[in-house]
Design brief:
Layout: E1 2-9, H1 26-38, E2 44-46, E3 55-64, H2 71-81, E4 86-94, E5 106-114, E6 126-127, H3 134-143, E7 167-175, E8 178-185, H4 192-204, H5 210-219, E9 234-240
Parallel strand pairs: 3-9, 5-6
Antiparallel strand pairs: 1-3, 1-4, 2-3, 5-8, 5-9, 7-8
Helix pairs in contact: 3-4
Length: about 250
Amino acid sequence: MRYFFQVSYHGRNYHGWQIQKNAVSVQQVINEAFSTIFGKPVTTVGSGRTDTGVHATGQVFHADFEDPIDKTDLRFKLNSLLPADISIDAVRPVKNDASARFDALLRGYEYHMHRQKNPFLHYTSYYFRSDPDLAAMNQAAGVLRQYNDFESFSRVKTEVNHFECLIEHAEWVRQGDSLIFHIAANRFLRGMVRAVAGTLLDVGTGRISQDDFVRIIEAKDRQKAGRSVPAHGLFLTKVSYPPNLYLS
């Protein structure tokens, strides 16, 4: 039987979600916990990668088991073995052909920034002293929905067949001294959210104009876009699936 697992993690100690040869990843640590419980390897498939240092509150992966499992018991055992910075938050049975990666309809991210120095936000939010023009950034963010090719915001060396993404929502929200960028799409390119956020900050600080932002999108050239903001402010917050995939 196949199950979907929802997992949260603090990304500071990991080189992203995906297993790597010479670095510790979240997926590797979870796989090791499964192996301890079942006495054999368990294959996990994530909804997608997250970069080194990026956090998650809504990452999803699937795993297969020969027999039905006790969801509550397995979740308890996993959380007992996993380090404090990784948590299994939910376990749900799904159809045997459901895929955490390929059946995802929407992925949501948040980028967190704070303007006043705060030691308790040091590893989960970007300390950005300037006060950017929120209205200007949201005007530019609204333009994103008019396009579907975002090569300008993709890492140059990446293995993808195309650079098309359907952005459904992109908005900056102020919460006290903090700014949070919410963005949701059917898929994201590697490094895309951080590059988009960095370029929008260029709009908000007056380094580039609204027209410049449009030209950057249309250029399909990563060198034209702004810098990538630091990874530690980024959270994968949600992955949505068709309801009929779930068995309960």
